[in-house]
Design brief:
Layout: H1 6-10, H2 22-26, E1 32-36, E2 42-46, H3 55-58, H4 73-80, E3 86-88, E4 92-94, E5 96-102, H5 114-124, E6 130-136, E7 144-149, H6 152-156, H7 169-172, E8 182-187, H8 188-200, H9 203-207, E9 210-214, H10 222-231, E10 239-246, E11 257-262, E12 267-272, E13 303-307, E14 321-325, H11 328-340, E15 343-347, H12 350-356, H13 358-366, H14 368-377, H15 394-417, H16 420-461
Parallel strand pairs: 6-8, 8-9, 9-13
Antiparallel strand pairs: 1-2, 3-4, 5-14, 5-15, 6-7, 10-11, 11-12, 13-14
Helix pairs in contact: 15-16
Length: 462
């Protein structure tokens, strides 16, 4: 064990590992295993002799030295999504964009139920025999993990969003034993890891013919679950069956709750997420790797699904999906679902879709250049990115610095406290600073837009 696996040396040691776990599958020496680190994330650790042939690094979505042919999402989409008719730099390759829901699965899903519908349809058509998706774990003190589903009943157990660290290593360890084809559900970085694994092992393109992408706001540490449990008065050791998106069908789509079972009295406890402030734009409990991701819409999946954070859809507490089809099969599944009445869908314009992810585009595309420059100044390795050359205004730099500080500080403080009330007190000043610099940034942006509008009117009147 005198050699360090390259993925540990060049990714994990620079805190850019996202925990996908495909390095453990690709390691020819089986020298890697996924373990929890001190900050509540899953990372590969060395458990055997390493020959350092680089296979583990080749499949890593945050590889700082990728091959030219797979250097960015654009390069990979050229290889795997050739039948997509359209392209937009923020969306990637695609065929159509929709908003809607699946009538059968909407009530049992976090949003519109489209992910469950697509998985079930692929099984019904006989295109696949298995689905790799996230379900409740049987392991002690581990709430969720990737598992294998082979029928509708098992798929229903995998419905609903889980903001909890998981790794594909739990299912890819069984991949070569399974007879039949497989669909994989995952966030952008996990989908990229699967595409890189297919590139390294071309036979997996036939074995895994369909990828379902979930549009992601950032991967959270398990500390996030512990924090929410503490907010409802449940300690992390007594928290069971956490639910992150409990709908209120009489309210709006964003007015959902967190809930869990308290093992002390076996009673359910829950709270509205709107009562605890912004858990996403602040960067609380987020993985550092997420700050070096520029794929907002899971560009490498056959179909990309997310929440329709737009009017009028946000007014419907039952939930509505946005949907981007990128392969011909994905387009057929959606259109056939519409024709059969199983899907209630309508076309969504490109502009409206871009608006639904405006905040994420702003952070990941506009802010990533500053984050990359800051990392490289500290001699940290980061992967090559498509938006790494953009200029950043001073006020937006302040926003980025605040978010980066909050991300890191939240993990350190929770590790020391594990109490929500004390955590909130210690984080209050940092969150207040972020709120102020964000307000300054938005005020300046609005003022600049007004000046541009006035200038255009003056020019037009001449």
């Amino acid at each position: 064990m005198d050699r360090i696996p390259r993925v540990i040396d060049l990714v994990v040691n620079y805190d850019t590992c996202i925990g996908c776990g495909l390095c453990t599958y690709s390691c020819p020496n089986k020298a890697l295993n996924m373990e929890w680190n001190e900050y509540g994330f899953l990372i590969p650790t060395q458990t055997g002799i390493c020959e350092s042939d680089g296979s583990c690094l080749d499949v890593c979505p945050f590889n700082p030295f990728p091959e030219k042919e797979v250097q960015t999402e654009n390069k990979l989409s050229d290889l795997y999504l050739k039948d997509a008719k359209l392209y937009h730099p923020k969306v990637g390759r695609y065929n159509s964009i929709y908003a809607g829901y699946a009538t059968e699965f909407r009530d049992t899903s976090s949003s519109g139920g489209l992910a469950t519908f697509v998985m079930a349809d692929l099984l019904d058509r006989g295109i696949i025999s298995y689905v790799f998706s996230v379900k409740e774990s049987s392991l002690p003190e581990v709430h969720y993990e990737y598992s294998i589903s082979k029928n509708r009943q098992e798929l229903l157990a995998a419905s609903k969003t889980k903001y909890y660290p998981v790794t594909l290593s739990t299912v890819f360890s069984e991949l070569d034993k399974l007879e039949g084809k497989i669909a994989v559900v995952g966030v952008a970085c996990f989908i990229k890891a699967v595409r890189l694994t297919q590139y390294s092992n071309p036979s997996l393109k036939e074995k895994i013919p369909f990828l379902i992408g979930i549009i992601c706001g950032g991967v959270k540490s398990r500390f996030f679950t512990e924090y929410l449990a503490s907010k409802v008065g449940v300690t992390k050791l007594l928290c069971n069956k956490p639910e992150f998106r409990i709908k209120d069908i009489c309210s709006t789509a964003s007015d959902y709750s967190f809930g869990c079972i308290d093992c002390y009295d076996n009673k359910g406890k829950k709270l509205k997420m709107t009562t605890i402030g912004d858990m996403w734009g602040t960067g609380l409990f987020k993985a550092n790797a997420c700050d070096f991701c520029d794929d907002v819409t899971t560009e490498l999946a056959d179909i990309s699904l997310g929440d329709a954070w737009l009017q009028p859809y946000v007014n419907d507490g039952k939930g509505t999906n946005i949907c981007v089809t990128r392969s011909l099969l994905a387009e057929v599944i959606i259109k056939d679902g519409i024709t059969s009445g199983k899907l209630h869908m309508e076309d969504l314009s490109l502009d409206r879709f871009l608006l639904s992810q405006k905040g994420s585009f702003n952070h990941r595309h506009k802010g990533i250049a500053f984050r990359i420059r800051r990392a490289t100044q500290k001699h940290q390795l980061v992967p090559p990115k498509r938006y790494g050359e953009q200029k950043t205004s001073f006020d937006f730099k302040l926003v980025q610095l605040s978010r980066m500080s909050i991300r890191k500080k939240s993990l350190t403080i929770w590790k020391e406290t594990s109490d929500a009330a004390l955590f909130d007190k210690k984080m209050m000043r940092s969150l207040l600073i972020l709120a102020k610099v964000t307000h300054l940034y938005h005020y300046k942006e609005a003022l600049f837009r007004k000046i541009k509008k006035i200038f255009r009117l003056v020019v037009a009147s001449e």
